[in-house]
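Many introductory courses stop at the sequence. We go one step further.
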Amino acid sequence: MQFPSPVSIQWLAEFLGAGIIGDKNGQATGINEIHKVEKGDLVFVDHPKYYDTCIRSAATYIIINTPVEVPPGKALLVVEKPFDAYLKIVRHFRPFEPATKMISDTAVIGKNTYIAPGVFIGHHTTIGNDCIIHPNVTILDHCVVGDNVIIQAGAVIGSDAFYYNGKKDREIWYRKMESCGRVVIGDFVEIGAGCTIDRGVSHDTVIGDGSKLDNMIHIGHDTVTGKNCLFAAQVGIAGAVEIGNGVILWGQVGVSKTLTIGDNAVVLAQSGVPASLEGGKTYFGYPAEDASLKKRELVWIKRIPELWKKVMG
């Protein structure tokens, strides 16, 4: 999430009751989680295992619970509970706004766009020109929909991320990491009936121009798809996945989190993707591998009983 304007580290320290180590004159431009941080961002860390990763990331400012050495040009904001500090910032800059009507007065809807009965459009959402939004679609706060987009009945755009801060030393192990990101849908995209696309935790979930999604697809928080992708029914994509241009995922493909699928890759139906895939190839199976090799492997597996009989005489 980008702040409306840069915020001084001294103001943030006062707001959070934090001590500052490092550059005390800087200004933060936004808050982000570790998979999406950029220069000028603020990020939080509350476990020693991830201190070094956060400090060496692109983030310029780190909310942390222990004083450690910090590189030049960066600053630490030291607090007892970094996660609570993160939530305080999110709630300040992107507070919850109750809905009072089906289409918010702050929503912006383009020319020649059709909004069917039963559609909900949240606060500060923008929908482009020449779109068709079918009945019972929900488009939640701060979403951006491009031009010439079709969203079929019952789709949910901008639901909260499935993302939790887990600590087993407290009564409630999993605390919700409140979402302050957006969903950004490009031009000429089609979203099938019953799809769910989660907003980013603190960045954007992006559907690239020209992409087509079949029915009952789930796309997790902070996932970015390229242009002209094609996803068949019941595909499930976890959070913070980077998908290139022209990627095809056939029915019931499952994609794990924080990985990359290269341009023009094709993943055949019911495959599972637990690790990054190169572009320009066709994949099959679990774990998804080169489809031609996987099919040969299956042929040999089917021959095991026959080979066993020969070995045993």
